[in-house]
Amino acid sequence: MNASSRAIVLTPLVFLGCLYALNLVHSPAVTGQAGLGFWCFIAFLWLASIVALSGLSHLSPKSATLRRLVGLSVPVLFGAFLFFLWEVIVVGAGVPSVLMPAPSAIGSRFAASLPVLRDDFVQTFVKSVLSGYVIGCLSGFVVAIIADRVPFLRRGLLPLGNFVAALPVIGIAPIMVMWFGFDWPSKAAVVVVMTFFPMLVNTVTGLSAAGRLERDLMHSYAAGYWTTLVKLRLPAALPFIFNALKINSTLALIGAIVAEFFGTPIVGMGFRISIEVARMSLDMVWAEIALAAIAGSIFYGFVALVERGATFWHPSYRT
Amino acid sequence: MTTEALSLPARPSPRKAARRKEGNAGPVFVVVLAIVALWYTGTILMNWQGTADAFARAGEARSTSEILLATMEQERPMLPAPHQVFAELKKTTIDTPVTSRRSLLYHAWVTLSSTLLGFGLGVLLGSVLAVSIVHVKTLERSLMPWIISSQTIPILAIAPIIIVVLGSIGITGLFPKAIISAYLCFFPITISMVKGLTSPDPMQRDLMRTYSASLAQTFWKLRLPASLPYLFTGLKIAVAISLVGAIVGELPTGAQAGLGARLLAGSYYGQTIQIWAALFGAALLASLLVALVGLAERFLSRSMGARPA
Amino acid sequence: MKPKGETVLKRVTEDFMGDSGAQPGLSAEPGLASRAPVVDIQGLSLTYEAADGPVYALSNVDLQIEEGEFVSFIGPSGCGKTTLLRVIADLEQPNGGHIHVNGVSPSEARVRRDYGFIFQAPALYPWRTIQKNVELPLEIFGIPKAERNERSRRQLELVNLKGFEKKFPWQLSGGMQQRASIARALSFDPKLLLMDEPFGALDEIVRDHLNEQLLKLWDKTRKTVLFVTHSIPEAVFLSSKIVVMSPRPGRIIDVIDASHLGRERKLEIRETPEFLKIAHRVREGLRAGHSYDD
Questions:
Q1: CA–CA distance from A2 to each of A7, A9, A54, A56, A312 (Å)?
Q2: C104: β partners
């Protein structure tokens, strides 16, 4: 009880303190030359935030919605505080922006270069990632079905697929650039190769996930291969397939960005990162990374949402 | 699960084990053979135009079969034939002294050393983080969601920044690449280890409580051994992406040495055979590292009495 | 660490030497009837806060258990029999009433390592051999290696698992695993054994067999056993006292004395009229406690 009431009192106070510190650090007298008093204040805020957060995380209110709210607020507040520290330290100590730009600088850079970011996003995400992702996942799925139909092929492909999944597939990027040119098709090709194998392996594994009893039941109905596949084995494989879709959503973005390091036309997220890093304008690089992070988590979140809808029956969603 | 009768089940029947062993070797061999055949076909088809054009430019009229053979002997083919790649591999490993900059082994060593350093750092960082997350509730509630959600973002994109920023304050060479590797591989280690350390079921934890075992005793005698299978799954992923991190880390500096540098240089100068050789080198290295981790896992799980799978 | 280990060791070795075969010295024990009961519970209650209101897991429970008794707790699921056992073991905290185990609070008793707990499942650690599993509590108590080996050997012999020391749990059948977990609980020779449906997951043939063995063990070691079960024949066959419980709220509705069946019982006893009479009374009690729902 004591800790929780402390947390409830302390959290708004820390929040106000952080706002005050942010205000202070951006005043000309403090920027880049913050004194000892200022840093003591920050250290004090840090300690207070630790107490507040630990109080919050031990809180378990009776109502379920409130509990969810607290469960969500702890990581959100923690993340916000990390950003606050980043901002305050970089601005207060006057860290040169070629080393580490402040979040505010990144944010304003992000807002100022929206057209560039949009073009890069379209080039890298919409063209390379999405097309490669769709082709790679679909072909992985189709090959998995074929492999499932031909046991000999399955026994040959599965170990190989597992083997390839551990390889640095990203290394094929220069070859793809050579084959498909500098524009997005070569990036899409890298994405296809990177996403193909996880999909293949997971689908093949998933297709054997249906239990003995369920399959015997289908057998007792004299159901054929395709009926069993559609009615039983594919639904049972869905959690595995979605697992591959989620892994691939991250892999695809990584593949497309890194492939652009090997040569692109003058647009694209990977291109922008490598060119701006060379120019030492790190705020733009960070803006690009922020874009990649947002795109990546929305993509992942979308797949996860679809998964929730499609595999609602799976034990992991039962509450 | 526990309803079997009192009779002692013998070790899994040798018949079953034998069937497993003979299992996939045949099909894998056939599939690999098919891939090689496809590869040669690809070599012929993809290089045909270039080869024929080259002959035409030189004003030489060649028969189809001569062009066919020549597609597999190009210096800068669209797709080198397998034997060309292996000849290049042999040339740059066995025939070249290890100290030479033309030796693939030299470049592999450069990449491997930063991979291993990064992997070591990542394991250290990842397991310390996992242990504290398991024991400090505040960390679990605040940090864990961030570690999980950071899996969904392409963190590899940060690699160039780390190289350049560390380079600008005078840190170059092995260390920045190792940082990238460490940074990439601590996520899977932390996540798998947290999962493993929290895997003992309530009954096993209650048992420790009835013995009024200390926190340290519960950790060493229950949590840690229970976490090992999970940890090894994480380690295998980690060592593989640690290598990816090291390779990608070699790209932004224009890269003087390492497998990534070989890839980049090959791509600049159109040296396809060199690219393929570097690619195979990287693949061999990756499978070697994963196999080593797998071997350690086998050794450990056998001494811990795991049911032979 | 060290001194505590030694005191435990001393007590254990003395007791242990005395336990094999009913030595006359031990028969003096019941004479100390004036001693405080092993478990003394008064007005105990335990309430959970669930999403749809409070759950009364235990309500106003009174119970005294004397040394050397074999007490079974029987009742439908949700009657609080497991919860009661876990309160005694300090694995759950009650919200009201008094409870003493060996004259002290459950948590003190736990820290003193007064009891051995046997769970529904064997809960053997899969990475330890059977012998190492039996030695686990001894390791935690800081008992030296030679002594650990000696004791695990003796306990495994006692539960008829000689020759399986170096096996891993998965190589044993369910019944053997549960016997190993009993050996583990006996290894530090606690006076009190708490058993939570230990044979619930086993088939009836194995269970009969283990019941007989357990009874012999109880007779030989003179321990106090608290035994949770949902099987009427098992409860009547094993117990010197049967506690019948009922759910919503979890409470005791009958305590039946079965000591007149004797300490040494054969499986055939289950066909005798005395046995059937007790079983009937248990069934009546269960039915009474159940009458107002389903």
A1: 9, 11, 12, 11, 40
A2: C101
Residue numbers of the domain that contains C194: 36-114+190-294
- Report pLDDT digits (tens) over B264-293: 888 888 788 888 888 888 888 998 999 999
Residue B167 shares a structural domain with residue B273: yes
Q: Would you call A78 and B142 a contact, using CB atoms and an 8 Å cutoff?
A: yes
Distance separating alpha carbons of residues B120 and B108, to the nearest angstrom: 18
The yes-or-no verdict on residue A31 having pLDDT over 90 is no
**Other beta carbons less than 10 A from residue B103's beta carbon:** 18
Asked whether this complex has an ipTM greater than 0.95, the answer is no
Query: Which one of C89, C139, C177 has the shortest CB-CB distance to B210?
Result: C89
Kindly report the nearest CA distance between residue C99 and chain B, in angstroms.
17
Average pLDDT of the segment spanning C70-94: 89
Quick count: other Cβ atoms within 10 Å of Cβ B203? 14
3-state SS class at B286? helix
Nearest to B31 by CA among A138, C43, A146: A146
Question: Is the residue at B12 inside a domain?
Answer: no
For residues C291 and C230, membership in a common domain is answered with yes
Cβ <8 Å between B267 and A178: yes
B6 and C201 in contact by Cβ < 8 A? no
**Same domain for B32 and B164:** no
Q: Nearest-CA residue of chain B relative to C130?
A: B305
CATH code for the structural domain at A111-317: 1.10.3720.10
The tens digit of pLDDT for each residue in C34-68 reads 467 889 999 899 988 777 778 888 888 899 998 88
Give mean pLDDT, residues B168-190.
85
Q: What is the pLDDT of residue B223?
A: 92
* Residues A35-45, mean pLDDT to the nearest whole number: 83
Q: Which DSSP state fits A101? A: -
Q: Which residues of A271-303 are buried (b: 16+ CB within 10 A; e: fewer)?
A: bbbbbbbeeebbbbbbbbbbbbbebbbebbeeb
**Residues C274 and C242 grouped into a single domain:** yes
> For the whole model, what pTM was predicted?
0.80
- Where do we find the tokens 């396809």? B272
For residue C274, pLDDT beyond 80: yes
Q: Of B6, B206, B210, which is closest to C173 when you measure between CB atoms?
A: B6
* Domain shared by C273 and C144, yes or no: no
Supply the pLDDT for residue A245.
Answer: 93
Positive or negative, the CA dihedral C271, C277, C280, C281 is: negative
Helices (H), A26-113: 36-57, 64-92, 103-112
Q: Nearest Cβ partner of B209 from C91, C169, C206?
A: C91
Q: From chain B, pick out residues whose CB is under 8 angstroms from the CB of C176.
A: 6, 8
Q: What sign has the CA pseudo-torsion B105, B110, B116, B122?
A: negative
Size of interface B-C (CB pairs under 8 A): 92
